[in-house]
Fold:
Amino acid sequence: METATQAHREGTPRRVAGKVAVVTGGRGDLGGATARLLADHGARVASLDRAGTPAPASHPGITEYDVDVTDEASVADAVRRLSAELGAPDILVNAAGIIGAAGASHTATVEDFDVIFNVNVKGVWLLTKHVVPAMIEKQAGSIVNFSSIHGLTGGRNVPLYHATKGAVRLLSKCDAAAYGPYGVRVNSLHPGSMNTRMSRRSAEQSDIGPEAYYKQLVGGNPLPRQGEPEEIAYGVLYLASDESRFTTGSELVIDGGYTAV
Ligand SMILES: NC(=O)c1ccc[n+]([C@@H]2O[C@H](COP(=O)([O-])OP(=O)(O)OC[C@H]3O[C@@H](n4cnc5c(N)ncnc54)[C@H](O)[C@@H]3O)[C@@H](O)[C@H]2O)c1
Structure:
């Protein structure tokens, strides 16, 4: 069956043509689908991920770069290299993230706390810090930060994950406020339960077991199934493109209706 992505490659409108896009977590399930869709719609895409993470099959329009989003020197170096090779970024998608270990707050260690906040929050901030000056100079740009439905609601399984995703939601709104006058938009994206490795891991480590976990997150939803990575990528494409030019500081929830009921 032909996917929507293939159909677009073969001649339908290219919604981010000529733009340079940076996608962190580009070798992951959601970042990878996003990188491919942006490339199929005409962007030159820099896919950034941790050294040693296997890259998916090469794809036209995507260049791979190694980065550790928690390390400022590594982020600065990657942004310098990709800007020299592809041009100054117009789009930044912060999709790198980790779920961390399950367990109530008192069971986590200080190291657990630092690791998850470093990747999920400091990483988003560091990429913004190093990419936004070029956007301010151009007086144009779109930043899309991956939060989660877990950044909108609480839950007892992965409290530190919820806390990091809540932080990403508010950092996005603050940055939207600060950079709007320079033509730079910042929005957060809130996926529900997706058909990905991260979600499988989360189900496996749930204290109620995978079956009950899926039932809770998916079973009672208006659309009672997990989402597919491409269904998130289309949301990013909208926020990244000029079609969303009046949209900033918003929360795009793509969750099959989980948070609606
Ligand atoms: N999968 C879901 O169901 C789901 C739901 C809601 C939100 N999210 C969020 O969406 C984003 C993408 O999730 P995914 O399912 O694609 O996960 P994934 O594990 O497939 O991809 C995450 C990527 O981030 C990279 N990464 C981790 N630490 C890094 C670091 N220090 N430096 C650079 N890269 C690093 C990993 O190598 C990986 O390729 C995450 O922010 C996640 O929290 C996912």
Q: What stands out?
A: The chain is about 45% helix and 15% strand. The first strand starts at residue 20 and ends at 24. The chain has one domain: 13-260. The longest helix spans residues 110-138.
